[in-house]
Write a structure and sequence with these properties.
This protein has 198 residues and is α+β, with helices and mostly antiparallel strands. The protein contains seven helices and six strands, in the order H-H-H-E-H-E-H-E-E-E-E-H-H. The chain has one domain. Strands 1-2-6-3-4-5 form a six-stranded mixed β-sheet. Strand 1, helix 4 and strand 2 form a beta-alpha-beta unit. The protein starts with 5 loop residues before the first helix and ends in a 10-residue tail after the last helix.
Length: 198
């Protein structure tokens, strides 16, 4: 990101995912994935804000199946993909995948685990990764059928993107839900004059 640091983005996404009611593991993976995308010039904040404020979606019922039926949450599907990538053929059909852009960090994990360049296609978009570099043509979709297959052009780093203020603010509002309300004790601070714990 050109106007926000990767560390800021990662911390915001972790808190926003937790604020949206997801578990710590999913929050950590979503934050890592957001950082991976941003480091490759892709702003993940609009997709994440839309996903976290949208209707719920599920995970694959059988991660070893050649086709996963949706609606699929890209974070939940991504965790399944990363877990099972070394055990399965890299060809996969994903029906009703919400915000396919958010699956790309997990596709990168699968590419690294299998030693293959993998290509994800959806609704006029194509993304290829070897686990490190990313080549992306097209835009995210609210929901689309996607296909994952080995091969693809040699990945190249796309142009840098700037964080979008509206999406950043939406994630910050979710992150704020993780803050504990102020109490008399917290307003006093943690100075030496505080009463010791008993």
């Amino acid at each position: 990101m050109t106007d926000r640091s990767l560390g800021e983005l990662q911390a915001l996404v972790r808190a926003a995912v937790r604020g949206a009611g997801r578990d710590w593991g999913t929050a950590a993976e979503a934050a890592r994935g957001a950082r991976w995308l941003a480091a490759r010039g892709v702003d993940p904040t609009p997709s994440l804000a839309a996903l976290l404020s949208g209707p719920p979606a599920g995970r694959p019922t059988d991660p070893r199946a050649p086709a996963w039926d949706g609606p699929l949450d890209p974070l939940r599907a991504g965790l399944a993909l990363a877990d099972f990538a070394p055990l399965r053929a890299p060809r996969l059909s994903l029906r009703g995948l919400r915000h396919p852009l958010l699956l790309l960090p997990f596709v990168a994990d699968a590419a690294a685990a299998t030693g293959l360049t993998l290509t994800l296609t959806w609704a006029g978009a194509t993304a290829a990764t070897d686990g490190d570099a990313l080549s992306l043509a097209g835009d995210d979709a609210d929901e689309a059928d996607a296909a994952l297959a080995p091969g693809g052009c040699g990945p190249a780093r796309p142009a840098a993107a700037r964080a979008r203020p509206a999406a950043w603010d939406a994630l910050a509002a979710l992150a704020a839900l993780t803050h504990a309300p102020a109490t008399a004790a917290s307003r006093r601070g943690a100075g030496a004059d505080d009463d010791p714990l008993e």
